[in-house]
Amino acid sequence: MIYCVEDDSGIRDLMIYTLNAAGFEAKGFLDGASFWEALRKNTPELVLLDIMLPGEDGISILKRLRESGNNVPVIMATAKGTEYDKVIGLDLGADDYLAKPFGMMEMLSRVKAVLRRVSPVSQSEVLLHSGIQMDTAQHIVTADGARVELTYKEYELLRKFIENPGRVFTRDQLLTSIWGDSYIGETRTVDVHIGTLRTKLGRCGDCIETVRGVGYRLGAEK
């Protein structure tokens, strides 16, 4: 999950759209108050933080984050030419910065670079099952040798199954695990994502079995 704290709704919506299209899950917040409320429930993988915000500004938010011991990666968005803000932000623990106006591809590139940089090498692992290969370090999935582009939720569902072969998960368990306790929605959401995941995996997707009246599991190797 990536949090985008930006008070300009047009820019914020475009950032979220771009991140979603690239396979990330993203949420937007227009000010510090809404950001802190969400942070109390879930810690994101990364925060895109504008400096100029109504109420509490981005520098103050970053300072509070680091003083509280929260080391979530932060990319600051600064007005073009404001060298002082860049220096202060980096000194306070920002991981990178974007100078406004910035392009969406530049934003995406910096997000990926920061996430690669902060990912512990020790967590690198290749998971295998029934022709499916998941490289957790590079976030790459292949099925029968062909690369498969998955959304963030589809990727996390597949990883959940491969790390727990044979275990049956109810829809409620999957909602809580993948979408979080704060998610408000129907279990039908799980069915839809399982359906698209199976389709994208092709023949290999048959290993995700439906357990009638209960939920889903990863079947035996085929």
Could you explain the architecture of this structure?
By secondary structure, the chain is an alpha/beta fold. It has two domains: 2-118, Response regulator (Rossmann fold, 3-Layer(aba) Sandwich); 123-218, Arc Repressor Mutant, subunit A, CATH 1.10.10.10. Helices cover 41% and strands 22% of the residues. It contains eight helices and twelve strands. It has a five-stranded parallel beta sheet with strand order 2-1-3-4-5, sandwiched between helices. Strand 1 (2-5), helix 1 (9-21) and strand 2 form a beta-alpha-beta unit. Helix 1 (9-21) crosses helix 5 and helix 6 (152-163) crosses helix 8 (188-201). The chain is elongated. 29% of the residues are buried. The mean pLDDT is 88.
Number of structural units classed as domains: 2
Helix content: 40-55%
Instruction: Evaluate the radius of gyration.
Output: 19 Å
Task: Give the tally of β-strands.
Answer: 12
- As residue ranges, the low-confidence spans are none
In the CATH hierarchy, the third-tier topology of the largest domain is known as Rossmann fold
